[in-house]
């Protein structure tokens, strides 16, 4: 089955929008449909795109000031009273600073709090390394009961937001600040826990590229150029990092024989590690990991940083070629 | 809640003794756990579960119940023992405290005992949850105006920055339906609170954050009850009751010694403590002795 994607996907003038914008739109849809939905934010309401919700539902919006630790636990208390709280801040501070509050008061209690971490990844750019969360997937996916979602574009972020508002599980939604290419369409299916093949080359397949977040677009660009170089690469978009779509990953590994993971995150503990955990125990497969290799970020333009850390299109192609030898 | 008459006070005081005995039996059996805090808070928990709280042990999830958040989860033996004596589960179950497969985890865990309002242990996180509950209740436009959110905290726990975040937020939101109770027993693991990290002037600190502050003798049933009533009468602010308690209260050997914060009595110490409690400190002499 071919998944419908943006027809302008490979064009230089492909439409762009910030992934976080999709969260803002999705939250409005979810809140209109379900009055249990409430929103909390730590002094970053416009920045995390919770502002439209706050304006339409002022009584259901709670300005927390700059207290991410309390925000997590306040939301747990609200969930205990039947609400579905969305808490938003920058990923570095939530789930970064308030990790233990999330573990104990949200996940250990198994409360349906939705943690929305914006400005994740190094593409936050000029703000520098303090604000570039490249550990958030690792620290959330390791907590029992937690669901972890990293959408690839604004449309998928909107769908993910609407979907997670309906579940009873603690959930982390990873968002990015910058405008990035729109990969999917309104008609692209989305289901929590389901991976999708976004690119299938003509002819022989030699590698599967598994990507999440905005780097899915770079993976697609890389796959098309690799195809022109005679290397067939499939691209899988894996929005839900936990629970992982194990069957789809194993099937991809069996078909391709080699796997490259791509994420704007430390290679330790992130998507690549999660995929490796599955394959090591089911279908051991040669792998390469595109991501940040045990370094902090720094100031710069997003494209400069992606190039520097090897996460741009060329970096992905290089990783594939090195793996295939 | 209503005022206390003499008979009820006597009933509560006797109940508190029985609860202290259950705490000691549980700790001796567990061979680990905290002694001083649970004994010190036994009077307050008794007053709450046998007089103040709106709750129903036969229907623990009753929607209209008051909510009790135990923030300093390490004193859970007093919560478990009081709940057991109230009828939530058999008193005998206290002997499973901290053991494999027990509902009575070393620190409270909702997954094992779903009738708990929250899990706790890591300090400083309870008041924030209580604030969230109080905010939601107010959101319901007074439909639950008769319901109160109570949060129990330790004094050493006030070292945690998150507590002050929650104090600030509750003050901002003027949460009249929230009552916090601080166990001011002056000890924490490493020593006396004023040596480890001074808290005083504690009353002024809470007041500065917009709270109505009461100080009471935490072993006086009337004082406990009156303070809660006053807290309920204050409409513009959240209330904190700073309850001065004697750590280890009820057993001479455990009282006021911070070394009993995090240790359980051994078998002999437990037997002596039970004898002291059951004779009300030697006032009652059994004819069998």
Automatic annotation (TrEMBL), chain A:
This is Transketolase-like pyrimidine-binding domain-containing protein. Its cofactor is thiamine diphosphate. It holds the Pfam family Transketolase_C. SUPFAM superfamilies: Thiamin diphosphate-binding fold (THDP-binding), TK C-terminal domain-like. Keywords: Thiamine pyrophosphate. Residues 17-182 form the Transketolase-like pyrimidine-binding domain. Belongs to the transketolase family.
From TrEMBL, chain B:
Keywords: Thiamine pyrophosphate. Residues 16-269 form the Transketolase N-terminal domain. Its cofactor is thiamine diphosphate. Transmembrane segments: none annotated. It comes from the Bacteria. Belongs to the transketolase family. This is Transketolase domain protein.
């Amino acid at each position: 089955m071919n998944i419908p994607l943006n027809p302008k996907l490979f064009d230089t003038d492909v439409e762009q929008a910030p992934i976080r914008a999709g969260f803002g739109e999705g939250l409005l849809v979810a809140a209109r449909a379900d009055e249990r939905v409430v929103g909390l934010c730590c002094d970053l309401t416009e920045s995390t795109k919770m502002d439209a919700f706050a304006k339409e539902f002022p009584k259901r919006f709670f300005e927390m000031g700059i207290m991410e630790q309390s925000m997590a636990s306040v939301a747990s208390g609200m969930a205990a009273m039947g609400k579905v709280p969305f808490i938003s801040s920058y990923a570095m501070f939530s789930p970064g600073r308030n990790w233990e509050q999330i573990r104990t008061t949200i996940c250990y209690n198994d409360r349906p709090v939705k943690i929305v971490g914006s400005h994740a990844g190094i593409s936050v750019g000029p703000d520098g390394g303090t604000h570039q969360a490249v550990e958030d997937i690792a620290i959330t996916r390791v907590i029992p009961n937690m669901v972890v979602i990293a959408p690839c574009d604004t449309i998928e972020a909107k769908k993910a937001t609407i979907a997670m508002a309906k579940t009873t599980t603690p959930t982390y939604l990873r968002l990015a600040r910058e405008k990035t290419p729109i990969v999917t369409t309104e008609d692209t299916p989305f289901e929590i826990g389901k991976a999708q093949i976004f690119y299938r080359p003509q002819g022989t397949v030699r590698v599967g590229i598994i990507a999440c977040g905005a780097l899915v677009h770079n993976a697609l660009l890389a796959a098309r150029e690799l195809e022109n170089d005679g290397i067939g690469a499939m691209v899988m978009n894996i929005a839900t990092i936990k629970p992982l779509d194990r069957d789809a990953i194993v099937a991809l590994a069996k078909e391709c024989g080699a796997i490259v993971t791509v994420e704007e995150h430390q290679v330790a503990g992130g998507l690549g590690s999660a995929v490796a955990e599955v394959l090591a125990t089911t279908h051991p497969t040669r792998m390469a990991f595109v991501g940040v290799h045990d370094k902090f970020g720094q100031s710069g333009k997003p494209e400069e940083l992606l190039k520097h850390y090897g996460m741009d299109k060329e970096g992905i192609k290089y990783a594939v070629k090195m793996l295939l030898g | 809640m209503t005022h206390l008459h003499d008979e009820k006070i006597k009933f509560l005081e006797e109940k508190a003794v029985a609860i202290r005995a259950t705490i000691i039996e549980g700790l001796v059996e567990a061979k680990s756990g905290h002694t001083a805090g649970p004994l010190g808070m036994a009077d307050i928990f008794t007053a709450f579960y046998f007089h103040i709280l709106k709750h129903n042990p036969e229907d623990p999830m009753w929607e209209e119940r008051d909510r009790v958040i135990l923030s300093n989860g390490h004193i859970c033996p007093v919560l478990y023992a009081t709940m057991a004596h109230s009828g939530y589960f058999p008193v005998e179950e206290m002997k499973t405290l901290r053991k494999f497969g027990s509902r009575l985890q070393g620190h409270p865990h909702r997954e094992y005992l779903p009738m708990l309002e929250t899990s706790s242990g890591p300090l400083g996180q309870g008041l924030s949850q209580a604030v969230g509950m109080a905010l939601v209740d107010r959101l319901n436009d007074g439909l639950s105006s008769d319901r109160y959110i109570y949060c129990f905290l330790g004094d050493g726990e006030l070292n945690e920055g998150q507590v002050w975040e929650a104090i600030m937020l509750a003050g901002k939101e003027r949460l009249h339906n929230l009552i916090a109770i601080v166990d001011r027993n002056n000890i924490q693991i490493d020593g006396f609170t004023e040596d480890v990290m001074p808290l005083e002037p504690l009353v002024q600190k809470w007041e500065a954050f917009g709270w109505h502050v009461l100080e009471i003798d935490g072993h006086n049933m009337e004082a406990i009850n009156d303070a809660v009533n006053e807290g309920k009468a204050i409409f513009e602010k959240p209330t904190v009751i700073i309850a001065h308690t004697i750590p280890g209260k009820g057993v001479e050997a455990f009282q006021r010694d911070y070394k009993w914060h995090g240790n359980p009595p051994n078998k002999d110490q437990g037997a002596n403590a039970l004898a002291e409690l059951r004779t009300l400190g030697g006032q009652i002499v059994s004819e069998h002795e």
